[in-house]
From TrEMBL, chains A, B:
It comes from the Eukaryota. Gene3D superfamilies: 1.25.40.420, Potassium Channel Kv1.1, Chain A. It comes from Dipteronia dyeriana. Pathway: Protein modification; protein ubiquitination. This is BTB domain-containing protein. Pfam families: BTB. Coiled coil: none annotated.
């Protein structure tokens, strides 16, 4: 075994300055190749190698799961319309927007398979299993929603993919809520949370309330309660007071409990100092 | 900064014997908590923390993918037969085993959705897209395969899951090959590789050859060429010589090239020593 030179932590700390021939005398990180001292110690070689193996295993599992997703994903019957794959795709139901947004012309039906709708949504399952009107007619009317939203909704049921902007995320979250497609609802909610800011916080809060989107609700609420001083001047705030004062009350209640917690926290930290 | 006691690598190597109060003076692995010396150095703290974060991210991705798989997975129409979920499931095609295994009674039809078969298999897609006999009659006859195998096959097309033993893995691999369901073929092949041993190596080799199962073929072949001395005595070997001598030739060719490589390797290592 080589001899070991006596080195102080200080020397080790700014060891980047040391010359190459001294490498073997100090700890060198296998990963970043920099030398390090006692207080920067991470793991021993064995644990490092174990960790690397774990990472490899996780990556393999991800590859397997991606292949499984690719296998289970459906081509959507909409592909046949837009990209004209040609050939029949044996759709046995259509979804139609009975839209009230005053768009001209008759609504365009979106074709689908009962089997797919039923497997993705318990609401569709109940609707199509029991011989209800939709099942007999092979037509499912959906009100207050655009053709584009229904297209995207059906497409998601086949592919588990959607191209979102904020409007589409809201429309799809509403549909996901209505037809109990949890996976889509979570997907839209995550997107809306990522788009949260002070300007859309009040509207998002009200929207989340309306559609039981817990994650979006809590995130919006904490954003609002962090900016109470600016809140009352906002137009959306005044509208909300008019439209749904209970929601405003909940904002203040959340603000209050936050203040109490902060106070309690401060108190305890002061105690700690004084003791 | 604390003073640093001078310690030799040797002391660090058997540092487990050191007492607690000297901990802070030596490198201690964050992961396994054991002390380590220069030659056992793994990573610095920063790299350790980075690696931990990566692991967390990978685990989150796995959770997301598992949820996606759960969403995209179908309930199989077979569930309705066996567990009698009740309600129609709008199947529009049946698969029938025109079995030659001499089982009594008429074959039991396995119900399915054309849309599902078409989305999982390009062969079914071509068959059902173009108005072929199967498409018109709504019946797909499959020869030389048991009812159980067809059931398991259809079930896999809906759920990406199968309960395998060696016989079922072979049957499903044949079906996967015939209908070009790559994901299922890979799944069965992995299983058969995991079950490979000296006793089934020759049969597996021949089977893999017949169905273009490259991974199984190579694994079986290397198992065989590692035991050439025992090979010629095996019954399956003599049968293979009778039935398909070309496959036997390939075994010997593989064995030969292996010997050449080993010789070359030995040669080079001897050279290195002598130099």
């Amino acid at each position: 075994m080589r001899g070991h030179r006596c080195i102080s932590s200080r020397q080790l700390d700014n060891s980047e300055s040391e010359t190459e021939d001294e490498e073997s005398e100090t700890m060198r990180c296998i990963s970043c190749k920099a030398e390090y001292g006692t207080r920067e110690a991470g793991t021993c070689k064995e644990c490092y190698e174990e960790a690397s193996e774990t990472e490899e295993e996780l990556k393999r599992e991800i590859e397997d799961l991606k292949a499984k997703v690719a296998f289970l994903r459906f081509w959507s019957p909409l592909d046949n319309i837009t990209r004209s794959h040609g050939g029949p795709c044996y759709t046995d139901v259509v979804l139609v927007a009975s839209s009230h947004d005053g768009t001209a012309g008759p609504p365009v039906p979106v074709p689908a398979h009962k089997a797919v709708l039923m497997s993705r949504s318990p609401v569709f399952k109940a609707m199509l299993e029991n011989e209800m009107e939709e099942s007999r007619s092979g037509t499912v009317k959906i009100s207050d929603v655009s053709y584009e939203a229904i297209r995207a909704f059906v497409n998601y049921l086949y592919t588990a993919e959607a191209c979102l902007d904020e409007q589409m995320a809201c429309d799809l979250l509403e549909l996901a809520e209505k037809y109990q497609v949890k996976h889509l609802k979570a997907y839209c909610e995550k997107f809306l949370v990522s788009k949260l800011n002070w300007d859309n916080s009040v509207i998002s809060y009200a929207f989340a309330h309306q559609h039981n989107a817990k994650l979006l609700l809590d995130t919006a609420l904490s954003l609002i309660t962090d900016n109470m001083d600016k809140l009352t001047k906002r137009e959306e705030y005044m509208e909300l007071v008019e439209k749904d004062p209970r929601l405003v009350v909940e904002i203040y209640e959340a603000y209050l409990s936050k203040q109490v917690n902060t106070a309690a926290h401060k108190g305890s930290s002061i105690k700690q100092k004084s003791s």
